[in-house]
Specification:
The structure is a homodimer.
Chain A lengths: L15 E6 L3 H12 L4 E4 L15 E2 L1 H4 L5 H25 L10 E5 L2 H16 L5 E4 H7 L9 E5 L3 E2 L2 H14 L3 E3 L4 E7 L2 E7 L4 E9 L20 E11 L10 E3 L4 E4 L4 E5 L13 H14 L7 E12 L6 E4 L5 E5 L5 H17 L13 H7 L1
Helix pairs in contact in A: 1-6, 1-8, 3-6, 3-8
């Protein structure tokens, strides 16, 4: 199926600047930004846009929450992308629909016992050392800020700079924004072969027999990037699926159980404006397994209940499992691939939504032959090539 | 929609012996047995057969599990119906399909701490006093019988006489058995009015305008029996909906996490031959509310995990909430109604599947003007009439 705007034949040999494999938030963000910069882009998606991790992610934009001391380079990238998100969201809302706006209610990190408080203190120190606004709170302070917190709230950190987006709305807005910029999005089209020319990739062929020729091929296939068997051996990035189960609870938009994102050591709870509360997420090494399990749901419900007892009254609306693109060092893989004209934009693990604006900027730079943002150094694919040789 | 076998107009004034309101296990069992005994019967169902409690029940046939000391009369009824189930199931398998057969793997009642062991001991004594086969087991014995039991198994009672059925299969078989006996089943037809003749009910009218005239009208509408506003005031039985949430877990049929029904104080786990494991059920006074809640699912998963830790690996396939027909004294209401020619067969609370054969026998007796089984004394509707005057 070919989405608007036009009906040019897919088999055309007319020259595209880039064919992007994968219509998740990463692939679509790259396509949108590339098209804005004047490049001709086609996106190839095996299923539907957002059908991978993007469609189930919570959309929390909490850069310090996902990185720790010892991962300073990754943290740099996360912070850089976080700074880009406000403008990215505003522009996207204009281009693709208002629902993509940033939810700016901040986050409350809570420790539910003394051990967790020690760990939280380290995260607080990290936030302060980075110059981020953050306030240390007693358990009582926490409950004043979020009256729904349970009696076990021991201490907390209020991080007003943290925010969230609804990734499903982001995918929808990106899709529209892409279409508006003349990007073709081909869905239901698994890639079956690379079109090679010596040591360079010249595009890809899809299951329906169509050939998509382009100056550059961008691999943005999320968890499926590591099983891109159509790439030459050695060009496939070391990406594996990391399963995450996540719950959607449904409550009142007027009296939500939490006014802001609540993050404990074992669960995060992200309220949406319509009364939904997203509770995520398990981290499981299970291969391409997206079964919802009793144990996964139990663990999420237990920790959600521990943080916010009122969740017990909420409707359990949906449970899904998604597959994050994991890498050996938890950092993404954004840069030139092992063969000519191949660009990698994958491996974002738990940070795909957060890192989308920075990744898009990096990919455009690569497509245009310009310098990638300094903060993407941590994502250089060459780090794995070196290990292999 | 009118199910086979024939196309007689619904508006016909030809005389039926009974019109039965409700196509759950109770209504269909009554209809089947009545038709077998030569009566002409029509079943009127507001939605689809089994769309109420029958469609979500676990189908455990454990008479002592649901009744306690002090409810001896109810226990008598449960035991009588339990004795009827084997033949009922065999006959039904012949008449309506093999899937309705009894699962005869027995049950293991487990106490997960010393307190629960005290309560379980009382249940064991009750079983023994009733002459039921039951064996007291240590925690180690329990784990020998069911190796999947968790370390908290403290003591147990093996009850080999207890069994189970799949209520969805039973509904399907009953439906077929009814059709084979010439019972008409009218679905998607809410009753809107009673057709009265002085102090007697002569049938019911349905939303589509059809009139269903019969010698007797049987109310078998489960949790909806108490809101049968189409009956004259004073003839509506005191039935209220009691919400129950129940989980379907999916595992291997070859290596099930339990070989038999496992019953702890707070959860029951009923294995099915196809690898499913049913975990039920909450008991909630919430009116006509069938929302699945975080708290309900959490409680069931926690207790299931406590009894059988391996459930954590099972797929959580389905969570639903059903409405049981509760009564003021937890006993069913089977007998003559407050107006002439009205028969009540409702209020079975947590025992509808178990009590279906006995209830059907009682209803046939009432329709034929014969004596109802002695054990149904506890279900006499007159007990509430007396209270009211």
């Amino acid at each position: 199926m070919l989405v608007l705007p036009d009906s040019r034949p897919q088999n055309t040999h007319e020259r595209l600047d880039a064919v992007i494999v994968g219509a998740g938030v990463i692939g679509l963000a790259c396509a949108w930004r590339a098209a804005q910069s004047g490049l001709r882009v086609r996106v190839i998606e095996r299923s539907e846009p957002g059908s991978g991790a993007s469609g189930v992610a919570a959309g929390m934009l909490a850069p310090v929450g996902e990185a720790t001391w010892g991962e300073e380079d990754l943290l740099d990238a996360a912070l850089a992308s976080h700074r880009m998100w406000a403008e990215f969201a505003t522009e996207l809302a204009d281009a693709g629909g208002a629902d993509s706006s940033l939810l700016r209610n901040g986050a409350l990190h809570v420790a539910l016992d003394a051990d967790e408080a020690g760990e939280l203190r380290r995260r607080y120190d990290l936030m302060r050392s980075l110059g981020l606004e953050a306030e240390w709170l007693t358990g009582r302070d926490c409950r004043e800020l979020e009256p729904g917190l349970g009696p076990s709230a021991f201490a907390g950190v209020h991080a007003p700079h943290e925010s969230g987006v609804d990734p499903v709305a982001i995918v929808s807005a990106l899709r529209q924004a892409c279409v508006n910029e003349g990007v073709e999005i081909v869905t239901g089209a698994p890639v079956t072969a690379a079109i090679l020319d010596g040591d360079a990739i010249r595009g890809v062929a899809t299951e329906d027999g169509a050939e998509h020729l382009a100056e550059a091929t961008v691999l943005a296939a999320g968890a499926w990037s590591g099983s891109a068997g159509w790439l030459p051996e050695g060009a496939v990035p070391p990406v594996r699926p990391v399963k995450g189960q996540i719950l959607t609870l449904r409550g009142s938009p007027v009296e939500p159980v939490a006014g802001r994102i609540v993050i404990s050591e074992r669960v995060y709870l992200v309220p949406r404006a319509d009364g939904r509360l997203i509770a995520g997420a398990t981290v499981e090494e299970m291969g391409f397994d997206t079964r919802v399990t009793a144990g996964g749901v139990y663990e999420l419900l237990r920790e959600a209940y521990r943080a916010l007892p009122d969740v017990a009254e909420l409707e359990l609306e949906r449970v899904v499992a998604g597959l994050r693109p994991g890498t050996p060092d938890n950092a993404p893989i954004v840069g030139r691939g092992a063969i000519d004209r191949l660009v990698l934009a994958t491996g974002h693990f738990r940070n795909g939504i957060l890192l989308a604006p920075l990744t898009a900027e990096g990919v455009i730079a690569l497509l245009r032959g310009e310098a990638v943002p300094r903060e993407l150094g941590v994502a250089d694919p060459a780090r794995f090539a070196k290990v292999a040789t």
